[in-house]
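== Folding the chain ==

***
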Amino acid sequence: MAVPMSITIEGMLKSDGTIELRRRPGLPPGPVWVTLEAVSQEHILAEALPDQPWEDEALPAPFDLPLSGLPQPVNPQVVEEWLPHPIE
């Protein structure tokens, strides 16, 4: 599984210049770039989705998930009589 190369984590900048992160980052140890952005208290308390929806999503969330359990085989049947064309 690939490790994400960019993440966003909430934290607190303390008066001594240190940063306290709310959770442990999921990045491997090594050098990183740090970008700080001040946020208002209302923004922190607002509920947010973990992953923002893509603008081009064609299916709602419950239908794009895989079905649980083992897949069932499909047995096609021969149709003896077709339905009439709706305009006829």
